[in-house]
Amino acid sequence: MLAEVRRTPGVTRAEIARRLRLSSGLATELCARLRELRLLTEEPAPARGRGRPTTVLRAHPEGPLVAVLELRQEDWRSAVASLDGAVRLVETVRHGPGHGPADVLAAMRSGLDRVRRGRERRVRAVSLSVPAPVRGGRLVENSTLRWRAVDFADLAAGTGAPLLVGNDAILAGVAETRTGAAVGAAVAVHLILEAGIGGALILDGRPMEGAHGTAGEFGHMPFGDRSLRCLCGARGCWDVVVDGNALARSLGDPTPSDVRTYTETVLARAASGDVRAGRAVRDAAVALASGLAGLANAHDPDVITLGGLAAPLRAAARDAFDAAYLDGLMSFHRAAPPPVLDAAHADDGSLHGAAAVGLDHITTESALATWSDLHP
Ligand SMILES: [Zn+2]
């Protein structure tokens, strides 16, 4: 029932009973129990036609919550998520000039305290998105922030809520399969282009995270130029021929300090008719499409979603992208190529994905049992 309310906010009790094949008596009883446990609340549904009156189910105003934190390159954000899947942004705070891990984590900890204030007992999990590979709950390395091996364990210490740490690209992929462009996909590939390429393979709404949590580093597959070595240490990485650094190399510009802004500038120059910028953008879009075809061949997904700058890069050279994608697919895929869709969550994917993972956590059987012990 909780899952249905999350999937379809504003759903009626009658509709849930129909979907779950419950008698109306049993549905009424379950709702009463969930109300007692402060999980759901009911309000009369607007009368429609001649059907029997029913109620709309919503998250209980005193129910459990997830505190969501999202660390980004330039700032961090906090939000609160309720059982109906609603995510409410609390604040956005830019990093100070030093932006070392100690300062940023201290600021995020006070942000978490502001999220919890007045609802300390209701916040049952803290879900954190970080812009880097995550291994054993620690950030491995972020070259833009110049952070390495950062441990977040203290962030939620003393709150009584477990801390869940996830990679931003993987979480954005989760959000697309739950409430975005890939809803209903059994197998989805999400790809995000920012300073590099990241993403996730998502199976039935859950990310394939690898044995140690670092799967999805799609940018470091050798779809690139074997004569070039990547900053990651490997040779021939796909990243190196797609991202803003690739554009800078094609255009003879110095390595950009802010890859995202530089990429947006080059896309704008191409759109305004700059021929050299147009050629660089087309080459990058073709490299992106060829690699995506490789991912499609490898994973046979229902759908591929594009996040970050991948969508505008494709849009800037749509014909060349489409031709390269088809050309890279194994011929048996070409009759019905896996659709490549723009992500629906735009810049909020990681935040919504972190909320979804947190809500999964607080609605497990054992988490609900703990909650009901607190509200006998
Ligand atoms: Zn690499």
Automatic annotation (TrEMBL):
Any one Pfam family match given in the protein's UniProt record, by short name: MarR_2
InterPro entries according to UniProt: ATPase_NBD, HTH_MarR-typ, ROK, ROK_cs, WH-like_DNA-bd_sf, WH_DNA-bd_sf
Limits of the HTH marR-type domain: 2-50
A GO molecular function held by the record: DNA-binding transcription factor activity
SUPFAM superfamilies from the UniProt entry: Actin-like ATPase domain (SSF53067), Winged helix' DNA-binding domain (SSF46785)
Signal peptide boundaries: none
Family statement: Belongs to the ROK (NagC/XylR) family.
PANTHER family reported in the protein's UniProt record: BIFUNCTIONAL UDP-N-ACETYLGLUCOSAMINE 2-EPIMERASE_N-ACETYLMANNOSAMINE KINASE (PTHR18964:SF149), ROK (REPRESSOR, ORF, KINASE) FAMILY (PTHR18964)
Name by which UniProt lists this protein: ROK family transcriptional regulator
Species, as recorded: Bailinhaonella thermotolerans
